[in-house]
């Protein structure tokens, strides 16, 4: 029995270390909750199928409805989190090169009303 308990402890420690490493590589503006990413206020983050890796296709009125998760000028890429330069020169967070956004019609933390919007071209950003 002690050998099984030892294995369980080793597995639990490995999982905890992996979660801690993932948390260290996320920008402070991003949280992981319930299998999806949110901003610091708990609002769901989304990706857009029309974006190219490292390039946002959501500008102008699109960005009004889908506010980009902006990065501070001093922000640096870390792990799977990248910095995308927007058409206006602003810096936006990206996950694995894909820019991330909130959705203006999500009214409270945990809302996911943008998932599948516009012929399924918007998706919840997930780890």
Describe the protein's architecture and organization.
With 127 residues, this protein is α+β, with helices and mostly antiparallel strands. The protein has one domain. The protein has 3 helices and 7 strands. The chain has a 3-stranded antiparallel β-sheet with strand order 4-5-6, with no helix packed on it. A hairpin with a 2-residue loop joins strand 1 (30-33) and strand 2 (36-39). The N and C termini lie far apart (35 Å).
Write a brief structural summary.
With 127 residues, the chain is an alpha+beta fold. Helix content is 26%, strand content 20%.
List the helices and strands and how they pair.
Blueprint: H1 2-25, E1 30-33, E2 36-39, E3 46-48, H2 61-65, E4 81-85, E5 91-95, E6 98-99, H3 117-120, E7 122-124
Antiparallel strand pairs: 1-2, 3-7, 4-5, 5-6
Spell out the key features of this protein:
127 residues, alpha+beta, 3-stranded antiparallel β-sheet, two-stranded antiparallel sheet, 3 helices, 7 strands, 20% strand
């Amino acid at each position: 029995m002690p050998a099984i308990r030892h294995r369980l402890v080793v597995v639990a420690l490995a999982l905890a270390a992996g979660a801690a490493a993932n948390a260290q590589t996320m920008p402070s503006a991003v949280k992981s909750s319930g299998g999806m990413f949110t901003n610091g206020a708990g609002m769901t983050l989304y990706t857009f199928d029309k974006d190219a890796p490292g390039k946002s296709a959501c500008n102008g009125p699109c960005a009004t409805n889908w506010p980009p998760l902006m990065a501070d000028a001093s922000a640096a890429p870390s792990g799977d989190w990248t910095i995308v330069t927007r058409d206006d020169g602003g810096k936006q967070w990206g996950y694995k090169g894909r820019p991330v956004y909130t959705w203006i019609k999500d009214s409270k933390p945990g809302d996911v009303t943008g998932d599948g919007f516009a012929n399924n071209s918007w998706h919840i950003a997930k780890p």
